[in-house]
Amino acid sequence: MKRNLVWLLIICLLPYQIINAQDTDLLKLAGGDSVAKERVTMAFKSSRVINQHSMEFIAKGAMDFRILHRFGPINSGFENFYGLDEANFRFGFDFGIGKSLTVGIGRSNVNKEWDGFIKYRPVWQTVGGSPVSLVWVSGMTVNSTPWTQPDRKNYFSSRLGFYHELIIGRKFTQGVTLQMTPVFVHRNLVDSVINENDTWALGFGGRFKLTKRTAFVFDYHVILAGKQAGTYNPVSFGVDIETGGHVFQLHVSNATGMNEKAFLTNTTDDFWSGDIRFGFNLSRMFNIGKKKKAGDQ
Amino acid sequence: MKRIVILILTLWGITSEVAAQDTFYTKGGKISFFSKAPLENIEANHSGVTCVMDKKTGLLQFSLLMKGFEFEKALMQEHFNENYVESDKYPKSTFRGQITNNGDVNYSSDGTYPAKVKGSLVIHGETREIETSGTIEVKNGKLMLKAEFPVLLSDYKISIPSINNDNVSNTIRITVNCSLELLKS
Known about the structure:
A: mainly beta; Porin; 12-stranded antiparallel beta barrel; two-stranded antiparallel ribbon; 45% strand; B: alpha+beta; 8-stranded antiparallel beta barrel; elongated
């Protein structure tokens, strides 16, 4: 009787042990994979939403060559080939100095304007950490057109404009990123006594991914104070298309300016009454930093 | 009756002890992959691979976080995670398998032994049975596991857009190099 019981128990236990051995999750013994606080990346495809800076940075050691075009108004008709006859452009180079530090320089043909900026991220959105990224951008513009009144005493400082902004951005899901940006623009010289030197605006930008490589983007600024006479709030809608090393940003906008100072104080068309222009940003990434040998820590 | 109880306890004891004495592991294993295409070669390295094996049963398991792969160019890394393996959706890759010729490996004497491995590899949420061969080097109580094998991206539903056909190869060579030590529990 006893012996039978023993065998019965062994028979009952054995299959259990065998199954157990096959299913053993050895990985659990090692404690699984360690996940450090993960920084949220790839909130935008590019370092610009359309016109405004996005919360995204250029990778360290990379250079972004950007070619921007803003054409004439689409409603200017077939004679002007729907605005394509007229081209405003800016080309620029952005450099990734560090993971959270990007600097850039560019030149627009509108006003023969040079611009440069420094972009820094003191707070980075992390899983289990900060819910938002905070990014600071400070830029300067230099108008290099000949003086309109060369006879009078002109100061170099009159050519300068400045902008400062704080981007508060969050990548909500894989596909949705939104950001809000208070901006301050200062122009040393304005064209008329009715215009103020200081302009305050609040920007909104967002990205909605359509597929892995394309996204819908929007970019909007409300001018809160110091609006230049005869200007409108800049509005843009676009599509980002990524093809390996290039990002194409095709969009429609009422703005021609391609730096913060320009599009916030010089947008003379009203988007909502149909003065829309086609434009594109082309971004090409190059590796210029020391090649980090894969595997080097 | 007492004897039966002792027997049962002994049986339980044996089964639970197996893992403690024979399990080897690392959390800093190395896995790299290489893609050779007409326009560019792409190489990425991972040095935080978790690998655990049981020398008694020959069970062998790997796990890694896709975001841990490091590339020469930041943009490659971004595209890898964002467009190809979709790391946010499928953060891990695992392999669970068995050394099929485990009996041929003499774990008590130093040396290099050929090993055949069979099991299921999970990448991009897709599971495929793979079989490959490599070596196990026994040295001073440590085990060095090495293997090299190809995987096809199409098997794991990782698609290459036609515009990037010359940049990314469908055949990826994977190299495994893990040094395991005894798991002291």
